[in-house]
Design a protein that fits this description.
- The protein is an alpha+beta fold.
- It has seven helices and four strands.
- It has a four-stranded antiparallel sheet with strand order 3-2-1-4, sandwiched between helices.
- Strand 2 and strand 3 form a beta hairpin.
- The longest helix has 18 residues.
- The chain is globular and about 35 Å long.
Length: 156
């Protein structure tokens, strides 16, 4: 069952597959205020939630400004926010989301952004490649553990 859900999530999140609006209405819509309160309490930048039911996938993304993106719009917004790391993040997160879903739990993902300096070091956008090379050698183990969850430079 988990592998089937992973395949559906990969199709929807990595291959621009179709998502079901009726599933959003049925499983996600009523919880938006609850997730928004949690986002504010935890000081997160955004939260996104993914569900699967009977072979269909739905998704919602809520920003700290309470902008709500549904299904393909949510995926597109997340791709915009995580411009350089979207694919890697999804590859890391899809198995964990599938674990939640196979156990009857909605896959809720709250995201805090890293500081601009840390994000710049990871993405290499600072233009100081010699310094980045030295820092990268010292931080590689740490980054390997957490790199999938770092936002791109423009998300703050």
């Amino acid at each position: 069952m988990k592998s089937k859900i992973e395949k559906l999530l990969r199709q929807a999140l990595l291959k621009n597959g179709k998502m079901e609006h009726s599933l959003f209405e049925y499983e996600l819509k009523e919880h938006i205020d609850y997730w928004y309160k949690g986002l504010k309490k935890d000081k997160e930048e955004f939260v996104f939630v993914v569900t699967e039911n009977r072979g269909h996938v739905a998704m919602v993304l809520i920003t700290k400004e309470k902008e709500i993106y549904i299904n393909e719009d949510a995926r597109d917004k997340l791709m915009e926010i995580w411009k350089y790391v979207y694919k890697k993040n999804m590859e890391l997160m899809i198995p964990m989301m599938a674990d939640d879903l196979v156990n009857g739990i909605l896959a809720v993902n709250g995201v805090k952004t890293a500081s601009s300096n840390f994000s710049n070091i990871w993405t290499g956008v600072t233009g100081k490649s010699d310094k980045i090379g030295k820092i990268e050698a010292n931080l590689q183990a740490y980054l390997d553990k957490y790199k999938g969850f770092l936002p791109d430079k423009n998300s703050d």
